[in-house]
């Protein structure tokens, strides 16, 4: 049985997009200089989220745009590891000691579990 790679056809859809935020960053720096409260502009995920935040209910269709949804999804992917670590810290530091406290009769172990729950 011989596999011939030349006869194999592939149809892989590739999506990519690029948004240039350099004008937004330069605009922030110029605005801060003109308002005489110059500060170092750190254009990170939080600054991008502040730019994308829309309060008006009539403009909520902005979040339905495909580009905006992809940016938000990408930001969530970068935060997913942090959220997983926080969840595991909560499970180990609070939830498991809480369950141990409910199931043991030893006063010493209950106090240890109480301290773990308190400091978490």
Features:
single chain; elongated; 120 residues; mainly alpha
Task: Describe the fold and architecture.
By secondary structure, the chain is mostly helical. It has one domain. Helices cover 60% and strands 0% of the residues. The longest helix is centred in the last third of the chain and has 38 residues, at 66-103. The chain starts with 21 loop residues before the first helix and ends with a helix.
Write the SSE topology.
Layout: H1 22-34, H2 45-52, H3 66-103, H4 107-119
Helix pairs in contact: 3-4
In whole angstroms, how far apart are the ends?
60 Å
Query: Largest sheet, if any?
Result: none
Low confidence ranges: none
Q: Mean pLDDT score, rounded?
A: 75
Looking at how many chains there are and whether they match, the oligomeric state comes to single chain
What shape does the CA trace take?
Answer: elongated
Number of strands: 0
Q: Helix amount, in percent?
A: 55-70%
Q: Number of helical segments?
A: 4
Order of helices and strands: HHHH
Number of domains: 1
Fraction in beta strands: under 5%
Radius of gyration, in angstroms, nearest whole number: 25 Å
- Supply the helix-strand structural class: mainly alpha
